[in-house]
C-alpha cells in the first residue's frame, strides 16, 4: 500500500480538549502496509457552516497534510475518503469520545482504531486575523472537461484593478495551501503577496479537498489545463487587471507554469520556485544520490540504487507497451517488497510523462518576464543541475526579461536549513525565508506596475 505518490503535505492546526466528544481535533491509529506498520494521523476541523474538512499525515512515509474527501460525522459514525489513493475509513466513536474503531479500506480491509491526540500548534508565519485584505472561497472550471477546481482568492484592500498571481502546487495530491509537514507555504505566500498589493488565487489539486476530478491517473499536462482554467477565471474578475495576471509554480508547478504561459501569451509573468530544467528521470536520479549522501547512506548502497533507477527509467523510455513494461519492471524489481505495486506505480501516466518530459523546449517559447528562484541547499531539485539549462533555454528562445536568483542556505521549501534533508522541513519553525518572500514580491511588483 502506498498512501502518497512521491511528495506530500501538512498538519492542520487544531487542538483536542480532554474529554471532548465532538469529532474536531486530531486522531491517530496504526495500519499494516507491505513495508510494515504506519500511523494514520487525521486532523479534523469544522467550518462556520458546520461542514467538516480533514487532512491526514503518515509520518513513517514522510507524508503530511494529505487532503481527505467526503468527511462526515453523523450518529457517532466517522467517515472519510481519500479519492487520490482509493482509500476510505468508517468508524464508530466510543461514548467517552476518545477513540474511534472501524475499518480502513484500500484494496483490502483491515481494522483501524484511532485515538484522540494533541495536535501541534501553528507555525509562527501563519497569518492571524484580523487580516488586512479580503478572502473569498471560489470555484472555477478547468480547461479539461468535467473538472471544477475549488480555491481561495485573496484581494488587497482598495478599488483595484489589482495584479494577480496564480499559485501552482508541486507534485503529489496537494491542497490549496500546499500544506506540508506542519507548514502551509502557499497560505504564507498568499498572505505576504496580498499585503503588498497583489491578489492571489490558490486552489486544491483536482480530486483533493473541494476540487472535483481524479488525481491518480492525471499527468503534468492535465494539471496544466487546471492552471489554465485558473487564468481564464481571473481574467474575468472585475477587481483584477487582466493584463497583469501571472503564474507562480513550485517544483512540478515550475513545469506547469511554463506550459500554460507558452500556450497563453497573455500570461503577464512566470515565477519558477525550484523549477526543473532537465527531464524528470535526471532530476530523480540526482535527487536520490544527494539525499542519500546527505543522510549518510553508504556509497555502495547508493550506487546500487542508482543502477536500479537507471534500469527502470530505461524500461519506461524504451518499452511503450504497458504489459511488456510491467513484466520487465517486475523482473528488475525482483526481491523488493511490494514489487507488483511498485511496478504499477512506475507505469502510472504521471510517471511516464514526468520521467521523459524535457522542460527546455517549452521554456524557449516564453516571451513574458520570468523569475527563477532556487535554494542552494535544495536536495530535491538541485540548483547546479537545473538552473543552467533553464537559463540556456530562456536565452536560446530570445527572452529579454528574466532574472535568476540562487538563494544561499535555502532548501526545497525555501526555508533556511542546515542539511536540506526532507525530514528537516518539519523541524524548522520558519515556513518561508524573508529573503525569498521579499525577492519574489519586489520582482512581481516591479513587473506589474506597482513600483519602479
UniProtKB/TrEMBL annotation:
Gene3D superfamilies: alpha/beta hydrolase
Domain Serine aminopeptidase S33 per the UniProt entry, residue ranges: 189-414
Highest taxon above the source species: Bacteria
Keywords for this protein: Hydrolase, Signal
Pfam family, one: Hydrolase_4
MF (Gene Ontology): carboxylic ester hydrolase activity; serine-type endopeptidase activity
GO biological process, alphabetically ordered: proteolysis
Signal peptide (residue range): 1-16
The protein, known as: Alpha/beta fold hydrolase
Organism name: Paludibaculum fermentans
Lineage: Bacteria, Pseudomonadati, Acidobacteriota, Terriglobia, Bryobacterales
Amino acid at each position: 500500500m502506498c498512501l502518497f505518490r512521491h511528495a506530500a503535505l501538512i498538519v492542520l492546526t487544531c487542538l483536542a480538549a480532554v474529554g471532548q466528544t465532538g469529532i474536531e481535533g486530531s486522531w491517530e491509529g496504526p495500519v499494516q502496509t507491505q513495508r510494515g506498520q504506519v500511523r494514520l494521523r487525521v486532523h479534523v476541523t469544522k467550518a462556520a457552516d458546520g461542514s467538516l474538512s480533514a487532512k491526514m499525515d503518515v509520518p513513517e512515509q514522510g507524508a503530511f497534510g494529505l487532503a481527505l474527501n467526503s468527511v462526515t460525522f453523523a450518529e457517532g459514525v466517522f467517515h472519510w475518503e481519500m479519492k487520490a489513493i482509493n482509500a476510505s475509513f468508517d468508524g464508530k466513536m466510543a461514548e467517552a469520545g476518545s477513540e474511534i474503531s472501524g475499518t480502513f479500506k484500500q484494496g483490502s480491509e483491515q481494522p483501524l482504531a484511532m485515538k484522540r491526540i494533541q495536535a501541534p500548534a501553528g507555525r509562527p508565519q501563519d497569518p492571524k486575523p484580523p487580516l488586512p485584505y479580503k478572502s473569498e472561497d471560489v470555484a472555477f472550471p478547468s480547461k479539461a472537461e468535467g473538472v471544477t477546481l475549488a480555491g481561495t482568492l485573496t484581494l488587497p484592500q482598495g478599488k483595484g484593478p489589482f495584479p494577480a498571481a496564480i499559485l501552482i502546487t508541486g507534485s503529489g495530491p496537494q491542497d490549496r495551501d500546499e500544506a506540508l509537514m506542519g507548514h502551509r507555504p502557499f497560505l504564507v505566500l498568499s498572505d505576504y503577496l496580498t499585503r503588498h498589493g497583489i491578489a492571489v488565487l490558490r486552489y486544491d489539486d483536482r480530486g483533493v479537498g473541494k476540487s472535483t476530478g481524479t488525481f491518480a491517473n492525471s499527468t503534468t499536462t492535465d494539471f496544466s489545463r487546471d492552471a489554465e482554467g485558473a487564468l481564464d477565471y481571473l481574467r474575468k474578475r472585475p477587481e483584477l487587471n487582466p493584463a497583469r495576471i501571472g503564474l507562480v509554480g513550485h517544483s512540478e508547478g515550475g513545469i506547469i507554469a511554463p506550459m500554460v504561459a507558452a500556450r497563453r501569451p497573455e500570461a503577464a509573468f512566470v515565477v519558477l520556485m525550484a523549477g526543473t530544467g532537465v527531464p524528470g528521470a535526471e532530476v530523480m536520479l540526482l535527487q536520490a544520490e544527494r539525499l542519500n549522501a546527505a543522510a549518510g547512506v553508504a556509497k555502495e548502497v547508493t550506487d546500487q540504487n542508482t543502477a536500479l533507477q537507471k534500469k527502470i527509467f530505461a524500461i519506461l523510455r524504451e518499452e511503450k507497451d504497458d504489459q511488456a513494461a510491467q513484466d520487465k519492471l517486475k523482473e528488475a524489481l525482483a526481491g523488493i517488497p511490494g514489487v507488483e505495486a511498485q511496478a504499477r506505480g512506475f507505469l502510472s501516466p504521471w510517471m511516464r510523462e514526468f520521467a521523459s518530459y524535457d522542460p527546455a523546449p517549452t521554456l524557449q517559447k516564453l516571451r513574458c518576464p520570468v523569475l527563477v528562484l532556487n535554494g542552494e541547499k535544495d536536495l530535491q531539485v538541485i540548483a547546479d543541475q537545473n538552473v543552467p539549462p533553464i537559463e540556456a533555454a530562456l536565452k536560446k528562445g530570445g527572452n529579454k526579461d528574466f532574472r535568476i536568483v540562487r538563494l544561499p542556505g535555502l532548501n526545497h521549501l525555501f526555508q533556511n536549513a542546515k542539511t536540506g534533508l526532507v525530514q528537516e522541513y518539519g523541524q524548522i519553525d520558519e515556513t518561508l525565508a524573508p529573503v525569498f518572500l521579499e525577492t519574489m514580491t519586489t520582482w512581481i511588483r516591479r513587473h506589474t506596475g506597482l513600483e519602479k
